[in-house]
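Chapter summary example: a protein plus alpha-D-galactopyranose.
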Amino acid sequence: MTLIFGGDYNPEQWPEATWLEDVALMAEAGVTMVTVGVFSWSRLEPKPGEFDFGWLDRVLDLLHAKGIEVDLATASATPPPWLVRDHPSVLPVDANGTRLEFGSRQSYCPSSPVFRSAVQRLVRTIAERYKDHPALKMWHISNEYGDHIVSCWCDESAKHFRDWLQSRYRDIAGLNQAWGTSCWGQHYTGFEQVNPPRKAPGPVNPAQLLDWKRFSSDALLECFELEKQVLREVTPAIPVTTNFMSIMSELDYWKWAQAEDLVTDDAYPDPADPKSHLKIALSYDLMRSLKQQSWLLLESAPSAVSWREVNVPKRPGKMRLDSLQAVAHGSDGVMFFQWRQAKYGPEKFHSAMLPHAGTQTRQWRETVHLGQELRKLAEVKGHHTSAEVAILLDWSSWWALEAQESMPSNRLKLKDMLHTWYEPLFRRGIAVDLAPHGRSLESYQLVIAPSLYMCTIEQAKALQDFKGTLIVGPFSGVVDDNDQIHDGGAPGPLTELLGVTVEEFWPLPDGQRTKVGTANAHTWTEVLRLTTARPLASYEDGRPAITRNGNAIYVSCLLDDVTPVLREAGITAPEQELEICRRGPYTFVLNHTNASQPVPFRGTDMLTGREVTEVPPLDVIVIKEGQQ
Ligand code: GLA
């Protein structure tokens, strides 16, 4: 049993002599697994149907000889030049109708039948070649779906979108009803008249935008499934994954996670952001929640990235702290982008486990040290965190809230709302799950729904059945799953549960604040009429702002501080300077501050074997139950 340690390895960018040094240094650093071949299609299949596996055979053999396992990419993330030149329709088209050129990566239309069948042939050939290779541990399908290309607006995608709509609505009358096409004269008489939401003179039909988001997530998922199907046939025992990009709106990760064997994530907290550890922790908790299982940090930056405006490196100790934070939140290992720092290309300034300056460097020493420490934590593998608090997250609602422009306020951003609730829980060391909307919530004591703009009658039922304390944020229960306003207005199917009716939405101009108890409301307020709820806190003019109806608390505004509401919901623990995170019998204590912090309990650190009373800045200790 061991935690996974390694990174992306791109041997095709280096001469073979370097590979020997690579594997020797990997062994020295304790690397257990590398991801190979992510962007290597043009090297594996230099001409249509002509494959060159010699180099990859040698790489895999070298790795295996050192006991290093391989997360083998299916190499489909960048189609080769011959494919896009022979079939320009493979290249994606943007919403203005411009076809995007070759010369970067991920330049494909997810709906292109030519692309899809070329991928299937490639994947089958790779799988047949390596199915019995002893280094093969996991399949890495494509790369970061949704990065660069989330949607393609070409004619092929239009056809695919129409098919998707037809299976959703059966007939055009169903689509007209769902999209409310009586508005602005959009009544369709056949599916062939429907297009993707390309650039139009004014705001596009919001229901069309919503379905486009759903379709785009599904179209990419189909690409994943096509590859998975081939891999299952050829190597049924090898797990498949694709690397997620931390919490993001583009892909419905609940649906995606069900399709893969292991959730893996690429996480790039910004070292320049003092709150980055807090923001990334939410993503880690999402990854853990997606399958309620351990997951794997498949990519992270050893130090600076190369894609921000200013790419700040990680201070000494920061890589270790960031890495162990992921383990604390359920990752069964730590992997990086990438093993060896590139010599050329757009990522030549991106940090790596082995930097340009070689092994006489702080970076390398920290890499080796981390490998050693992960070995000491091997027994943590597979342990799970169970949370009593859940935050609801629903992608359709997120899309409906943010994809359209014609809202009372375009300032409501779901990620901000999630963080508002997550941050005070994090600061109190309270474990949080993310949970999908509409499923049973019975294992939780407290459920928080920062925003349920979209809420169907069935989804409301799951909330009604919930026996613990429920907090619902503003602008909830507004529309059904076609983005149509519920009869009687908000909070629609939540009206009885919350005991309030929203008479008016009252967004605030930028910068304006109004007092609600000890906190301030900003961005959004509502005019409520209470039916069975009682007020808990009011706006400055005395109107109710926060209400309670039985176990359900409604917060009709965005607050700069939600701790009073959490207190009302039974969260009374004090804030702490240290991050204290439990994973099974292990307690991770992480110091993200610049000062030493006392540990609130005694214990022996698994990493140093020492009795600890304080944690120095940017340090981490891990204490096993029974050793406190
Ligand atoms: C993503 C990609 C990698 C690399 C890194 C750089 O995670 O998957 O190929 O580009 O970003 O940070």
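Key point: The mean pLDDT is 97.
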